[in-house]
Amino acid sequence: MPDQISRRDTLRMGLAATSLLALLPEGSIPALAQGDTDVPFTDLPKNFNPGGAPGAASRQLDIRKIDGMLTPKDQFFTTQHFTKPEIDPAKYRLKFTGMVNKPTEFTLADLKAMKSTEVVHGFECSGNSPRAIQGLASCGRFTGVPLNRVLKQMGVNAKAREVVFFGYDHGSGDVAFRQQTYKLDQQFGRSITLENAMKPEPMLSYAMNGEPLTLNQGFPVRLVMPGWYGVANVKWLAEVHLQEERYVGNYQTRWYRTIRGVGGTGKDDDPETQWVENEVTHMQLKSVIARVRKTGGAHQVLGFVLNDGTPVKSVEVQIDNGPWQKATLDSANSQFSWKLFTYRWEGALPGEHTLVSRVTDANGVVQPTAAELSRKKTFLEDNSQFPRKVMIG
Ligand SMILES: Nc1nc2c(c(=O)[nH]1)N[C@H]1C(S)=C(S)[C@@H](COP(=O)(O)O)O[C@H]1N2
Ligand SMILES: [Mo]
User: How would residue 14 be classed by pLDDT, with cut points 50, 70 and 90?
Assistant: First the structure.
């Protein structure tokens, strides 16, 4: 019956077309065409050099160079407190100690032999801000073993509540106690609750973008904490220690905390003001304009969003205090990647312009302005809107 056949064929073709559509990248970053040029920013500090001197210990990402989801390993930002430990991969050991049923040591080969997973993880240092032109941020595809699988295999004592991660790096650090500051040898350590450690995301990672971690990124193994600030992602991982008590190491409870005024009229001396102190944990919702290119007859504004993994509702761009306009989120974005966005700017006139972006998440949280963050006394967790200045030629 030709009629039926043709109906079936039509149906099949329709299905094929639908599934093809689902694969087509909607709103992906338009590829650079020949003749496209970058528009210069006029808000950069003099002698702006985010890459630092060759071989410098710390490096920032030149966000004007972002052209895709993954940051190449030779551009990925890096920062740390001490010198970088050079570890012989053949001698590497990762120890699990404390309140585990079977204290265990893993070699790198042991970890690589386990079933692996991947996550695209975009993160920033909690000290990243407009002052650093937001260069303490990057995004990589990390491969490794889920921490919860290792903990479950080993068995955790029912009383354990805290999981502490120590790096192989250490050095002299300032440890404050009341009016005294001591210079003491410190091993880099950070902790999370056992509840957070048992979530699916934390990963013992040994590869980024399909290659072994670089020395800068924590070779041979680092903790990857999707949705958390950089500091939680302990590099050169040496030991995972389970305990019942809170861990109060220097880089947990003192260096990485934020002090904010809450309540009252907003004046510091208002007796109604409460000064709330918190540890630096999940990333605060932020968007950044990174790059502006002249392309065809218009300009393309490109930027990124960082947050804790909550779905993003919208990103908007405002030009010269005009109306907020919706930007397009990139189809390659995933829950814990940075979220790339573009905005097509039509009819830009020659001269200097101010561009700013703001992001809103699915819970209705809106990225604050700098003025709205004025009650935050300490400089970490600056997720304020970042107005940029560009010169159209
Ligand atoms: N072992 C160790 N891990 C560490 C640090 C450190 O000093 N030692 N610094 C943390 C901080 S403050 C940040 S922002 C990130 C930076 O990670 P990256 O160098 O891969 O970008 O590493 C974190 N992990
Ligand atoms: Mo950091």
Answer: very low
Q: Domain residue spans in the chain? A: 286-392
167 lines ligand 1 (CB under 6 A): yes
Determine how many CB atoms are found less than 10 A away from the CB of residue 35.
8
For ligand 1, say whether the CB of 201 is within 6 Å of any of its atoms: no
**Candidate of 78, 164, 233, 306 to mutate for ligand 1, largest count of ligand atoms within 8 Å of Cβ:** 233
Architecture of domain 286-392: Sandwich (2.60)
- Is the distance from the beta carbon of residue 356 to the nearest atom of ligand 1 less than 6 Å? no
Q: Measured from the CB, is residue 251 less than 6 Å from ligand 1?
A: no
Does the pTM exceed 0.85?
A: yes
Per-residue pLDDT, 288: 98
pLDDT digits (tens, 9 = 90+) for 100-110: 999 999 999 99
